[in-house]
Design a protein that fits this description.
Elements lengths: L19 E2 L2 E2 L2 E2 L3 E2 H20 L7 H18 L13 H7 L2 H4 L10 H7 L1 E4 L5 E3 L4 E8 L8 H17 L4 E11 L3 H12 L6 H18 L4 E11 L2 H17 L6 E4 L2 H8 L13 H4 L2
Helix pairs in contact: 1-2, 7-8
């Protein structure tokens, strides 16, 4: 039976400070807050009071003290707020400070520039002929073009079966392999149509000029309009395993799921080197519009 309510499960990496408690009193009940947030608020208020009474600020004009206390309390409340992942905003301050310098916000990709900064973003060493990606951290990956079964026109029974199947699928996934789903809007793929057109051209018994002109016109329509101007949604999944064995096991699980039922993934296609580079091109694009090539870009 499919679940009617979904939620993000609690992380197994929680500590004592992540436990939530609810403050109540006089018929008033606050939202549950983690202990670390309450400690941050309490510590921030104490530090503000100490700074306003025991430091050089205490000898300042009363208006200055009021402004300082107001600003400090606002800062404590803001930095003590929770992000969507239930982390304190204060934890993002180091990353914000590291992002402030202009050098940290711009990565130069000139041929004379140091390639280490660009390499730290890409993190890809090589893509072999079979499309297997070797990452800088030692992990390996493979890109697949996938087609699912989701639709706004699903019946309730079909939706229930899909949800149950998806739930069972993720229970089989090994945590040693990461699933990265990428959804892009790209020109329609016309490989099969062009190949069929070429096949028809070679099978012509009579090379009539009118027929050849008609096929040339069809080819121009496919390559210049259908495959160039008309876009469609494509979805890819990148399997990134910690090792080659982890990637192989993830591939077997994915293949077994596709062969066993079309509810989770209806079709899956392994991308070779050229197709994988074309997919990565969405994220890493050179200035001359050439497909991204790791070895060339980092040389």
């Amino acid at each position: 039976m499919a679940k009617t309510v979904f939620h993000v499960p609690a992380s197994l990496n929680r500590s004592f400070l992540d436990h939530e408690i609810t403050l109540t009193g006089g018929g008033w009940q606050a939202r549950p807050s983690p202990i670390k947030q309450l400690l941050f608020f309490g510590g921030g208020i104490l530090v503000t009071m100490w700074a306003a009474t025991a430091t050089f600020i205490s000898s300042a004009d009363p208006l200055v003290i009021v402004v300082f206390v107001s600003w400090a309390l606002v800062a404590v409340v803001y930095l003590g707020g929770l992000t969507k992942t239930k982390e304190l905003r204060f934890m993002t301050v180091p990353a914000f400070l590291a992002y402030l310098p202009g050098r940290a916000r711009h990565v130069y990709t000139r041929r004379s520039s140091d390639p280490s900064e660009f390499y730290s973003i890409v993190g890809i060493d090589d893509v072999d002929a079979e499309g297997e990606i070797r990452f800088a951290d030692g992990s390996v990956g493979q890109v697949y073009l996938v087609v699912g079964s989701a639709s706004y026109l699903l019946f309730d029974d079909d939706r229930t079966q899909i949800l149950d199947r998806v739930d069972a699928f993720w229970r089989k996934v090994n945590p040693s392999c990461e699933y990265v789903f990428v959804t892009t809007k790209e020109p329609q793929r016309i490989y099969h149509q062009v190949a069929n057109l070429e096949r028809r051209r070679h099978q012509l018994e009579l090379m009539d000029p009118d027929l050849l002109e008609l096929q040339d016109e069809q080819y121009d329509i496919l390559t210049g309009h259908v495959g160039g101007r008309f876009t469609s949604i494509h979805q890819y999944v990148l399997l990134k395993g910690k090792s080659a064995d982890a990637l192989r096991q993830a591939h077997l699980i994915l293949q077994a799921e596709v062969e066993g039922s079309p509810l989770v993934i209806k079709e899956v296609t392994v991308l070779d080197r050229d197709e994988a580079l074309q997919t990565l091109r969405v994220f890493y694009q050179s200035t001359d519009n050439d497909p991204f090539t790791p070895n060339e870009s980092l040389s």
